[in-house]
Amino acid sequence: MIDSNPPGHSEKDEAGFGDTIKDRHAEDAQRLLQRCMTNNADRTRAEELLRLVIDASPDSICLKDGQGRWQKANAAQLSLFGLQDIRYAGKGDRELAELSPWGGKALEHGEEADEQAWQKQETSRTQQIISGPEGESRVFDVIRVPLYYQDGSRKGMVVLGRDITQLRNIEKEKLFSSTIFQSAVEGIVITDAENRIQLVNPAFERITGYSEQEVLGKNPRILKSDRHDRSFYEKMWKDIQGQGSWEGEIWNRRKNGETYPERLSIKALYDEQGNIINFISIFTDLSEIKTKEEKLRIRFYYDPLTNLPNRQLFLDRLKQEIDKCKGTDILIGTLFIDLDRFKNINNSLGHFAGDRILQNVAETIDGAKRKGDTIARIGGDEFCVLLRDTRTIEELGLAAESFLDVFDTTFDCEEFGELYLAASAGISVYPNDGHDEESLLKNAELAMLRAKSSQEEGVRFFAPEMEKPVLQKVQMERDIRKALETAQFTVFFQPIVHASSGTVTHLEALVRWQHPERGMISPGSFIPLAEECCLIYAIDQYVIWQVNQLVSQWARDSRKGTKDIKVKINLSALQFYRTDLVDFIFYASKSAKVPYNRINFEITENILMSDSNAAMKRLQELRKIGFGIDIDDFGTGYSSLSYLTRLPIQGLKIDQAFVADLEHNSGNAAVTHAILELAKSLRLTVVAEGVETEGQLRFLQRLGCDYLQGYYFSRPIPEDEILKFLARPEVRI
Fold first, then answer.
1. Helices (H), 135-229
2. Rounded to two decimals, what is the model's pTM?
3. N or C: which end of the chain has fewer CB within 10 A?
4. CA 305, 653, 699, 721: dihedral to nearest 10 degrees?
């Protein structure tokens, strides 16, 4: 037997572990001793009784003489060391160690353990690890009782061992569970079958403000916030009773009366007969996340200068109105207003004066709206009005003209006095001029531009002849199809550098179009059209395949910087939701023998929110294979931040719109800082794109951004040039 405690075991642990085992085991030993040392005259009967006791015991028992030689061992002892078929009587531990098929090491320590007991001249107790026939380790509680003659010489030794492996594991599990319960950051509540609180953890007390003594025996409804109606709770308990669990977001109330949001999970526990005996509730306080989410929501959906809805929120509301009015005779007007010659005001009076005028105009236009209308600032000096609940074109025209009437007065610009402003306006009408929000906004802008160019007063309604540029799109679509057939597309790469070291860690793959007649065509000129006419999928497939082939080549290249470089690829919405996406990506990487973690995919927030369940499934499939996932253009769309916490993503990319004026625009700086703080709390890496100046670089470094990308380091360049770029020393930081 090994006469030492297992790793990490202390005397304090030994004393505190299994006191019941110790007492019971010691009592057994004492009873056995009394039987061994009896002066019963009928010695034969005593020996027979002793043999029966020893053999019947499930504990291992061994009787040794004064020289440590085995005299009697029961079946449990022999089985423990594999000595069932061995003549053990008269042999010592070391002799038997050579005969034991698996317990030799433990037996070799037997003499040392015995000697320690002899030296102490008292019963000793230790916990020892003994290996089994399959190499498994078992923990035994071992008691050694030394016996002496009247003259003090050694008479014998009784060794008793009890397997406490299972009990020890149970104790460890209890300790582990208790530690988790006490140290968990989530609040935990355990109730009985009647939903009376039996136990809460410290996190519950911290989050709710109630102490354990204040809530014991009470129903958790003491936390009820009254923000949910009766049907909400009926549905919750219906799920718990029927499915055994419920999970969702709920509002509760702290002891001080403050309401707070939490993520709550309730699970029912059953006995062997299937009866509910307990409910376990685990909840997370979402207050901080919701606060950050609301701040970001305001920044994402509202213009910081005028506090009006921004373009995104305007389009969202327009879409909702379209969905509501489908199949009815209700008309929707999209009014696009642009201030005339506003650039001259900015240039002559300065941007501060320009901002004051925009605020004044926004307040004036907002004051002219009808009930239910939405006013939005969608650009520098551009405003849009959503005109709802109208029945005739004439009614729309009158409502639109009322907004232009506000420009018949002057606008106060404080120290610059009163200024006269003019505006041009165009309007598109649903369903006459478009069936989606983007088309209506585009056509309203076309009408505004026609009004501005003609310098006519009043509101210009959209007309089909304004769509002549559409013909150019048709020709462009033909050219894209031909480009796919004749391999006119190619892949450029833009470096992404570590913000601290300047090391190039990633490349972003960007498609380029080398037109045989018009030369290099900007992606902004053909990507939107390719998405619109569903050709983007073929382009994306080409990029994915080509990138994998190049990464495979680079892995075999001996030049510096190419072997371990990772590449980010953008996924379009059209491609993301194709059922064969994951299969194609997997095939492209496997065929090229490219490690999956060398490829990262970037998707936008809008892709995620269009079908959140499908998006979650698709992302999980990609991550399971090993591909990386980042959210691209973060900050330009909107997604639930509580949903974001559950996405299997590794990083965020701050849109270049926030980086462009980072040093001078407090709103952009605030959004960027908020995104970085959010990413830090979610343990996500952040790439800032569009870095073009040293000032932007330093600003982002101070904010703690992880990676940087932009023209400051390099424009997107073709493959041969990127190889030369990677061979250079680290980028200057």
1. 165-183, 202-208, 212-215
2. 0.41
3. C
4. -130
